[in-house]
Amino acid sequence: MQPLQSAGYDRAITVFSPDGRLFQVEYAREAVKRGTTSIGVKSSEGIVLAVDKRTTSKLVEASSIEKIFKIDEHIGAATSGLVADARALVERARVEAQINKITYSEPIRVTSLSKKLCDMLQLYTQNGGVRPFGSALIIGGVYNGKCKLFETDPSGALIEYKATAIGSGRNAAMDIFEEKYQDDMTLDEAIELALTAINEATDHETTSNNVEIAVIKIEDEKYVKLPQDKVQEYIDAVLAEKEEEEAEEVEESEDDSEESEE
């Protein structure tokens, strides 16, 4: 048998393949794609971060699963991929936020924090003896009345979005955003859109036990995680709206069939 031409190029992070690829970085992206779905939405009233906390057993305490984190008073992050890697990134982000506050006596800008974190991610793609972080983050925050929403990548790439998703349900969620997102959405509408995307992107029942939501409002620039009962209210509203839409579609299809018979 002839040896594969690409064999060996994934042995070290510092080795490019002949076609210019870093296989270890691509493997890290695959780890993110296998993670649970996390979502960020920017509205006219603030930022919404939502995560699916898919539990593998009914014996697991859902409250012990952390996929959404407070980084500073005005910044939060939703994660997908390897949880341990995500926690390390979040701790680094928290340290950077506090360094900025001590050095300059003001909160760190969302853009600056995201770039600092991505600088660290990039370093782990060009040094021997380390591996890329198998986790991606959606970083959202409000600074001086402006909402910012960024998505990081294991390679260190940084992109700003109006609405985005990471994890296994990314494609389904992005289809929902492409269809329904509007720039002038209220915070409540953004929460309902995020829950709609999670409901479409996951194959299990959407409840307050497996969904977590945090918001950062423009009016006070404070990160707040919503209580379970409030999350369930939003979920009930989304599911009720979905049932109404499905009922209307059934009625329309019946009417069309009747007209065709006539």
TrEMBL record:
Residues 242-262 have a biased composition (Acidic residues). The formation of the proteasomal ATPase PAN-20S proteasome complex, via the docking of the C-termini of PAN into the intersubunit pockets in the alpha-rings, triggers opening of the gate for substrate entry. Interconversion between the open-gate and close-gate conformations leads to a dynamic regulation of the 20S proteasome proteolysis activity. It comes from the Archaea. Residues 241-262 are annotated as: Disordered. One of its GO terms (biological process) is proteasomal protein catabolic process. SUPFAM superfamilies: N-terminal nucleophile aminohydrolases (Ntn hydrolases). The 20S proteasome core is composed of 14 alpha and 14 beta subunits that assemble into four stacked heptameric rings, resulting in a barrel-shaped structure. The two inner rings, each composed of seven catalytic beta subunits, are sandwiched by two outer rings, each composed of seven alpha subunits. The catalytic chamber with the active sites is on the inside of the barrel. Has a gated structure, the ends of the cylinder being occluded by the N-termini of the alpha-subunits. Is capped at one or both ends by the proteasome regulatory ATPase, PAN. Component of the proteasome core, a large protease complex with broad specificity involved in protein degradation. This is Proteasome subunit alpha. It comes from Methanobrevibacter thaueri. The gene is prcB_1.
